[in-house]
Amino acid sequence: MQPFGAVAAVDSACRRVHSVSANLGALLDISLPEPDKLSLSCLLGKRLSQRLRRAMQGRENLPAPLTFVRQTHGRNERYQIHALRSGSQVLVEIEPLQALGKWRLLGAVNERLMKLADATHQEELLDNLVGSIQELTGYDRVVVCHFDSDWHGLILAEALGGRLPTILGQRFPASEFPVALRHAYERNPIRYIQDLEAPSVGFLPKSAAPSLEDSLLRAPAPDRVRYLQNLNVHGSLSLAMQGDAGLWGMVVCHAATPYPTPPPVRDAVRALVQMATQRLLLLRARQEARYLQRVQDSLVLSSTDRKEPQSPEQLLSAQAEIWMELFRAHGVALWIGGNSYLAGNSPAPTVINQLVKRLTRTHDHSGPWCSRELAKNPLTSSLTMDKQCGLLAVPLPFSPDERGWLLFFRPQQVETLYWAMQPSPNHPSPNQPSVLTLPSPSTAWYEEVVGKSEAWQRVERLAAVDLGEDLTLAISAYEISKLNGYLEQERKALAEANQRLEQLAHFDPLTQVWNRYRIEQAIDAELVAAKRYGAHFGLLLFDVDHFKEINDTHGHALGDDVLVALARMVEGSLRGCDHLGRWGGEEFIVLAKHADLEALIGLAERLRELVTMLSVDGLSKPLTVSIGVAAWQPDDSCKSMVARADEAMYRAKHGGRNRVEVAAREVL
Ligand SMILES: Nc1nc2c(ncn2[C@@H]2O[C@H](COP(=O)(O)OP(=O)(O)OP(=O)(O)O)[C@@H](O)[C@H]2O)c(=O)[nH]1
């Protein structure tokens, strides 16, 4: 461990001391008893160790450092204690607190915190942060290093104090930040090296030396020492910037010479980094929310503009440009039910079909699929997509067994990366710690990246999924409206067919008056009403006289014309409540409502006379009819009424035709 502080490793209850760093006695100016007799009270005094015990109960770390004053080397010295759990032990770290002298912390920190809280853009925020930390601490170089999705670090912001060169814009390979180191930062966000070359201090007893993995006072590993020496760095302070989904980046302070940074200054830097990280997350969340909203609006606005739901072609032709801009794509395609709809620089439909087949086979969950190296991806490498380098594919959940696809294509993006150092070829895996090959401390290594598109950002993938869901709804609405259109047509056709069937069922096809079945129904209904309410009604059964002769003389067609003309004329002469029906052949029946015998006879005579005046083209002789009249009588049935009318009509025929006869039993 580093010599500027001391550590005691104690049991989990903070009572028994297992081991102490060899410099602890000198730091506190006490002579240490035999290790097996050591307790925390011997080291810190009863009251302080009780305070520490209470503060550590149920906690992983001391929430705030404890300070104490003690007579050391004849003077009152102030110390600061920090404690953390490490496995089954608690590490108690003790550091002397020198008078701050040139450090004027409180006012300066507050002022800088306010400035950070006011920043409205990431760049402004990070520049403020590194500037503030550099001014506050006096380090020679303060940078913000951001991790990309492959854990390579990129220096996004930098403030220089004069003695170290710039590394702004440089990349550090992921091997610099192995998983174990990243996890250590998650547990303890600060790592500090006061003097790279200071001899490290051992533990007493040696056999009980604790693991200092998460301790602030641990000495740097030999690899780290070599690495920092290569960078001309002899003192450093690093702080994690913890994002929602893991480590977002780090603030790294470098000094060209050993550089003590008192605990309160480190705490102040930590407060600044925490505030900046919160602000950064907020700014990014706002930016993402604005982006997601724009993507969502792109579809909503297009569909509210139009009243009718839009087809996939219409949607694509209206929105492709804006979608390509939002997703930084040069082509977009929709694949629905075997049909491809393309815009911009998309592959041929046959290629899209193959692509979709493969995606559907291998990608069975609902999330998006993406690649920035289509030519290298086993799923796509054999497909002809020369102009496309990146693909973001979102399944559209139309139904459990049918998925559509929304596909965004990106072109190749040739990029020159400026690496601070070249990873050793023996360590090709980015997540393995590696010994770095540094050509010379200040020589950077340029890499031209070809065959890759821009990376698909997390927020872009989220937005594409949102858009996919909205598109599915919009296209389903269109399909439903199309189906409704078909159903409406079917419904109309069915109504027409029903109407035709009803016509056939109830109307005589030649004369278009009611047929026998329908007029019988009407007579039956009238019989029921008459029985109930006693309203009078009657039937007029009439038959064309010598109709056979008309047929024989003028032909059957003219006979038909006569029947049609007769029906039209009679129908036109009846009241709205009366009905005419064809009884069969050249026989017709009139159902006359609200009519007693006298009225029936009057109607019959009127009709008979009208018939004689009917003129039909081609007919040489006047037309006449013989009419039998039957008035309703209680206990009548349809059959009995028609039979009586028939008998009367028969008499009219025999009485010389062109006559009206009343049924025998009727009394006037
Ligand atoms: N053109 C035509 N003729 C029909 C139709 N229905 C029945 N007829 C004919 O009407 C004629 C009826 O003849 P008959 O029953 O002998 O009666 P009629 O010649 O009218 O003589 P009377 O009734 O005694 O005056 C038959 O020749 C039938 O073929 C039809 O729809 N169209």
TrEMBL record:
Keyword annotations of the record: Chromophore, Coiled coil, Photoreceptor protein, Receptor, Sensory transduction
Required cofactor(s): Mg(2+)
Gene3D superfamilies documented for this protein: 3.30.450.270, 3.30.450.40, 3.30.70.270, PAS domain (3.30.450.20)
UniProt-recorded Gene Ontology molecular function terms: diguanylate cyclase activity; photoreceptor activity
SUPFAM superfamilies: GAF domain-like (SSF55781), Nucleotide cyclase (SSF55073), PYP-like sensor domain (PAS domain) (SSF55785)
Superkingdom classification of source: Bacteria
Reaction catalysis annotation: 2 GTP = 3',3'-c-di-GMP + 2 diphosphate
InterPro entries (UniProt xref): Diguanylate_Cyclase, GAF, GAF-like_dom_sf, GGDEF_dom, Nucleotide_cyclase, PAS-like_dom_sf, PAS_2, Phyto_chromo_attachment
UniProt feature coiled coil, ranges: 480-507
Domain GGDEF: 535-665
Enzyme type, top EC level: transferase
Enzyme Commission number, as recorded: 2.7.7.65
Domain Phytochrome chromophore attachment site, chain residue ranges per copy: 121-278
Biological process according to GO: detection of visible light; regulation of DNA-templated transcription
Pfam family, one: GGDEF
Name of the featured protein: diguanylate cyclase
Organism expressing this protein natively: Vreelandella salicampi
